[in-house]
Specification:
single chain; 403 residues; alpha+beta; SH3 type barrels; 6-stranded antiparallel β-sheet
Length: 403
């Protein structure tokens, strides 16, 4: 249970974290949705499909920005209370630092549990559902190309053109140009084709045609003739890969316990599968990491405003360094056991280190001489920048409309 002061800090940090989470998730979501706008609009998908696709992007984006939102919420709460002298009053009245740490750690723990649920249950479903939506849009793009009889740009570097629809219901004169992959141009041509359902997925079955592959760097051209060729509609969007599901689209139970003779394990690299498993078991730790880092650099009343600013800058630098190392380590964690160990050691070690420093009442304090020296260095840098003329140029530009 939390007392009145602890509940006050918890509510304040929770509110700031949720507002930050909503704002940052929305910004990242917009950039991701734009990647799929061409596919959905060109295929004539309904507006509800667009929102359904956007919904599948929310869980991964939320999991990505959750630690950053917590860090901003926790640090801004403590900094705001310090500016309002609330922390000074708490400490002067005999309140321990545990009053400040307890609500932030509880909030970090709750966010970590939420991230755990996202990583293991919601994210795999979202990724798989997104693939299904893109595949359906790809099938509709082919139908739309038949109706228009013109080249349809699905996305940058990918074009589809179908001449007509035959009396049998098949398509005639299919032409697909794909230059999305740097250094390679692919051209598919088939006299006939049809949309078929194979293993529950829509595919474009091409007949009596050829595939041309050209290396744009060496101009080497290879041509392969075929009697039949299958193109999965997942290849007609920003996510490609044919019928082979990626590790992100499989459940954790499948990745851990499915028979290794399954086609999924034969088609995907073992290191990629191990990396995805390691990611799911470490991603949820980072809200706790960021919570302890925020506490270490922001806890306690401080009267020196400049010192607190430098502490905030140091906290942000440490948090970004830890998260950056986490991204790097999770990508290589599937290579061998040593990298797997480092992948787990980075977040767990950070939690243990900063928790120990907090409970030993050790917080970062810059000496006044260091703060004065850093401030003087910053002032010299600003003066040097202004002497180069950039400061005057900015002022002239800003006041150019005044006489």
């Amino acid at each position: 249970m939390m007392n009145l002061l602890e509940r006050y800090i918890f509510r304040r940090a929770l509110g700031l974290s949720m507002m930050t989470l909503a704002a940052t998730t929305l910004m990242v979501l917009v950039t991701q949705v734009l990647l799929y706008v061409n596919v959905l609009t060109a295929s004539g998908q309904a507006l509800i499909t667009f929102f359904a696709l956007a919904a599948t992007l929310i869980p991964p984006m939320t999991n990505l920005v959750l630690p950053f939102a917590l860090y901003i919420g926790a640090s801004q709460t403590l900094n705001g209370m310090n500016s309002d002298s609330e922390l000074a009053v708490i400490e002067a009245s005999g309140g321990s630092r545990f009053i400040q740490t307890k609500p932030i750690l509880i909030l970090a723990f709750l966010m970590s549990v939420f991230a755990l649920l996202l990583s293991h249950f919601i994210e795999p479903w979202a990724y798989k559902h997104k693939r299904d939506i893109i595949a359906e849009a790809g099938a509709d793009l082919v139908r739309f190309a038949v109706q228009s009889g013109t080249f349809q740009e699905i996305e940058d570097g990918l074009y589809v053109q179908i001449a007509d629809q035959l009396p049998s219901g098949d398509y005639g004169g299919i032409f697909i140009a794909d230059s999305r992959k740097p250094g390679t141009d692919l051209v598919y041509y088939a006299k006939r084709g049809s949309i078929q359902t194979v293993a529950g997925a829509d595919v474009l079955l091409l007949a009596d045609g050829e595939v041309q592959r050209r290396n744009t760097e060496t101009d080497e051209l290879s041509v392969i003739s075929f009697e039949s060729y299958v193109l999965d509609f997942n290849q007609f969007g920003p996510t490609s890969g044919g019928k082979n599901y990626s590790p992100k689209e499989r459940s954790t139970a499948f990745l851990l316990f499915a028979p290794r003779t399954d086609n999924f394990f034969l088609r995907n690299k073992p290191e990629d599968i191990r990396s995805e498993i390691n990611r799911r078991f470490t991603e949820w730790l980072y809200p706790m990491v960021y919570g302890t880092i925020a506490l270490y650099f922001a806890i306690g009343a401080r009267s020196n405003r400049q010192e607190r600013l430098w502490s905030m800058a140091a906290g942000v630098a440490v948090a970004l360094a830890v998260r950056g190392s986490g991204f790097f380590l999770v990508n290589i964690s599937g290579i061998n056991a040593f990298y797997t160990f480092l992948n787990f050691a980075a977040p767990i070690g950070s939690i243990v280190l900063f928790s120990a420093l907090i409970f030993m009442n050790k917080s970062l304090r810059f000496s006044q001489a260091w703060v004065d020296g850093a401030g003087a260095l910053a002032d010299r840098a600003i003066r040097f920048w202004n002497n180069l003329g950039f400061g005057n140029a900015i002022e002239t530009s800003g006041g150019g409309g005044r006489q």
